[in-house]
Hints:
CATH architecture: Beta Barrel
Shape: globular
Strand content: 35-45%
Distance between the termini: 36 Å
Number of strands: 8
Helix content: 25-40%
Order of helices and strands: EHEEEEHEEEHH
Largest sheet: 8 strands, antiparallel, barrel
CATH superfamily: Hypothetical Protein Pfu-838710-001
Amino acid sequence: MSYLNVxxxxxxxxxxxxxxxxxxxxxxxxxxxxxxxxxxxxSNGRLKLREGKIENNLIYYxxxxxxxxxxxxxxxxxxxxxxxxxDVLEKSIGVKVVVKKKREIYYIKxxxxxxxxxxxxxxxxxxxxxxxxADLSQEQLKQQCDFYLKEFGINENDLxxxxxxxxxxxxxx
Length: 173
């Protein structure tokens, strides 16, 4: 089944502020996950295998690169044998790039928040307003993103257009 997220990614100079805001506003803390996202070579969209202690999923998504709230259509499959699946995908279609990160995961209703530390890239916050847990329109999801952008005091110049994988690939080349 395909779902819709309206999401933002931004540089975060003050993760403590974001963490305190979330906790003081009733966010449910899911934990800290050390995640490895392996991106595979595909002809359209993005395919990644996420391996962590909290989240283990195969995720296919299509998203435009733009600053600010952007739509992401995605399919997510929970994975029991990540190592086996990774081996098959590596052999069959090849690895594009690997992203490692430490991720704090929070929820307020249908909005998921990440505070990420990505080695070589820095600290980031992500806001994902999604219709996976609530029947909301694209406009309602965007309004939720806009609300938290203001609450967190995120400036336009802090917004990131691309994924961590793109940022790492750019550093390599």
